[in-house]
Amino acid sequence: MHDSRSAADVGDASPYFFLSYAATPAPGHAPAERPLPDKNVAEFYADLSAEVTRMSGSRARVPVGYVEAPGRDRAQTDRALSRCHSFVPLVSRRYFTDTDCGRQWYGFTHRSPAGALLPVLWTPVPTTARPVVVDLELPVPQPPATATEVDQQTLELYAQDGLYGLRQDTDHAAAYAQCVRRIAQCVVQAARRGRGPGWAVREPAPTAELPDAFAISPLHPLGIAVLAPDIDHLPPGRSDVKYGRGPRDWQPFSDTLGTSLAERTAGLARNLGFAPTVCTFEQAEPVLLGRTQPAGPWVLILDPWVLHDPRAAERLAAFDALDLPWVTVLTPLADDPQTREHQGELAARLRAVLPRRLARGRAIQRAAVAGIENIEAFNSRFMELADSAAQRYLSRVPLASQPRSSSPQIEQQGDQEAQS
After folding, report:
1. Residues 6+ apart with CB under 8 A from 306
2. pLDDT tens readout for residues 370-386
3. Would you call 192 exposed, middle or buried from its count of C-beta atoms within 10 A (0-12, 13-18, 19+)?
4. What is the pTM of this model?
């Protein structure tokens, strides 16, 4: 798969790719200096450069990539960043706390002409530790190109351990090589698409003067919808001890010290790095029934007693029929004697309206829908499943490569006090 034009067409001012990484300072390292890439970063850069050279058929004497290191002044880095055809950040927790990386990201994603943003998962990063919207699945070339083969086990190992983990695992050397080939294919494709009559480069902006994209980004939004009766709309014979004026006042667990479950959940969400918005199912219905695009992941907290209401059951069944993996469902089972007595009936109602949710997904997701019996289990499952919903949101909803300049709005009727 050789390009008919070699890297000589790109020239030393336009590298195929710019490798961005968070350097590990050596002991006694001067803050103003940029340390050498560590051994694994340097070897990956060499591996990727060799594969790009092979795929492109390059005969140029200059490197096909650029990586910042001692001996290269800031002007060289600025020029490479402004002219590279693709930006390859090695994403890790430390990457998002590195000011130089944040400025490079900002410079690339805000420049003209645009290039290809090709994030590489270096080490695992929770969704809420990513201050910009970024998909960390292995890059895939754009149609009509046929992606180089990467087997399913390799994709799973990459998502679980990152490329750094694959490098350390000598039992999966072939998996690492597959990933490098795929990334190289995307790099070469970006260079092919970038070169042409319209290719022109402006004078590079000094990277040191750019904003840090990660410092200016907002928290990740999270919608929290509650579907529960209020004190004036209870099923016949249902005790009112767990309920209040509205669905968001519902307190299924006795050890919450007078705090509604919705309020406690919003607090947990903030601790995880989310900016939560709490609302009722009715307020969230346009998003949860697929009528409007989501601005973030969602958590639906469901009281099974509400399913005595035929209209609520019908709306929930319509929700279940949709494929919305960025919504996670949690069903707390109130700790009162009446709920324990009717647990079998409530379970049957859940099976009737949420058959899809109870049959698909991971075991922890199905268990969360079937019923959660105490606050400790609820907290644990919320923390894991909220992050899972966020990851699903990022992988299924179209992404923008630019940092977000303002917090996405979820529903105008949402409880804005939950964001304070």
Report:
1. 227, 228, 229, 312
2. 999 999 999 999 988 99
3. middle
4. 0.62
